[in-house]
Specification:
Blueprint lengths: L15 E12 L2 E7 L11 E7 L5 E7 L9 E7 L7 H6 L6 E8 L11 E6 L3 H14 L5 E7 L15 E5 L10 E2 L4 H10 L4 E6 L1 H13 L7 E5 L5
Parallel strand pairs: 7-8, 7-11, 8-9, 9-10, 11-12
Antiparallel strand pairs: 1-2, 1-6, 2-5, 3-4, 3-6
Helix pairs in contact: 3-4
C-alpha cells in the first residue's frame, strides 16, 4: 500500500490571529476564506480548525470548520463555510468578513478522518460534506497524481456544486432534487447501484464518507451492501451548528 511521507502529529497550537487574504463564493450559500497564519503548522487532509468570534461585551462563539486546502500550501489555510441563517458564526463569515480582516483561529485538530497516503481511496460526500474530501483530493493531485482516487458527490440541484470547477475528472456527480437540462448522469440519492462499480475498481482501499447523519448512514450502508468492509470506512458527520 502506497503512503505519503508521514506528517509529524503535534498538539493544536494556541489561539492565533490570522489575516484574511482572499475570499470567494463557491455557491450562493457557501464561501471560501483564505487565511494567512503566523503560526502555520503542517496538517493532514481531513483535519479542521476552530474559529472564534468575540463581541465587544466579551461574549464569544466558536465553531469548527474543515480545511479545504492542501497542506502543500504552506503558511495558509482555506476554510469553506456554509451560511446557516440561525448560526452565530457563519453569517458573520459570509456577510461581514472582508479581505484584510483578522480572524482568531486554532488548530489543526486531529481525528481518525484523515488521509495519510493510503491507496486506493473512495471519497463520498453530500453537500458541504465535500469540503474535507476536497482537501484530500487536492493533496493527492499535487503529491501523488497517479494514485487511484474517486469522488462521489451528491448535491440537490444545479448551482449547489461546491468547488464546481475542480470536480472533473475523478468525480461521479448525482443530483437529488433537480438535474441540469440535458443531464445524462446519475440522479437521486447515492445508492448501491451507483457505488458498485467503484467498489470493484477500488477494492481493498479506504472509503471516506462525509455529510449529514442521514447521508452518512445511507452511504455507509450502500458501501457495505457492495462488500466494502466496515473497518475500511471512515465517516465524519456535520450538524446544523454555524
Amino acid at each position: 500500500m502506497e503512503r505519503l511521507t508521514p506528517v509529524a502529529q503535534r498538539a493544536p497550537g494556541q489561539w492565533q490571529i490570522g489575516t484574511v487574504v482572499a475570499t470567494r463564493n463557491e455557491t450562493p450559500s457557501v464561501r471560501t476564506i483564505r487565511i494567512a497564519l503566523p503560526m502555520w503548522m503542517a496538517f493532514l487532509p481531513g483535519q479542521h480548525y476552530e474559529v472564534r468570534l468575540t463581541a465587544p461585551d466579551g461574549y464569544s462563539a466558536q465553531r469548527s470548520y474543515s480545511v479545504a486546502s492542501s497542506p502543500s500550501e504552506e503558511g495558509v489555510i482555506e476554510l469553506t463555510v456554509e451560511r446557516l441563517e440561525d448560526g452565530e458564526v457563519s453569517p458573520y463569515l459570509h456577510d461581514v468578513l472582508m479581505d484584510g480582516d483578522e480572524l482568531e483561529v486554532r488548530g489543526p485538530f486531529t481525528s481518525y478522518f484523515v488521509w495519510r497516503g493510503e491507496s486506493p481511496v473512495l471519497l463520498v460526500g453530500g453537500g458541504s460534506g465535500v469540503v474535507p474530501l476536497m482537501s484530500i483530493l487536492r493533496h493527492r493531485r499535487v503529491t501523488m497524481p497517479e494514485l487511484p482516487m474517486r469522488l462521489v458527490y451528491s448535491v440537490r440541484r444545479p448551482g449547489d456544486e461546491i468547488f464546481r470547477d475542480e470536480l472533473a475528472p475523478e468525480t461521479e456527480l448525482t443530483y437529488t432534487k433537480e438535474a441540469p437540462r440535458g443531464w445524462s448522469g446519475h440522479t437521486g440519492r447515492i445508492d448501491k447501484a451507483m457505488l458498485a462499480p467503484l467498489a470493484v475498481e477500488l477494492a481493498g482501499g479506504l472509503a471516506f464518507v462525509c455529510g449529514t447523519n442521514g447521508f452518512v448512514e445511507a452511504a455507509t450502508t450502500a458501501l457495505m451492501d457492495d462488500g466494502w468492509p466496515g473497518e475500511r470506512i471512515r465517516t465524519e458527520r456535520f450538524g446544523p451548528s454555524g
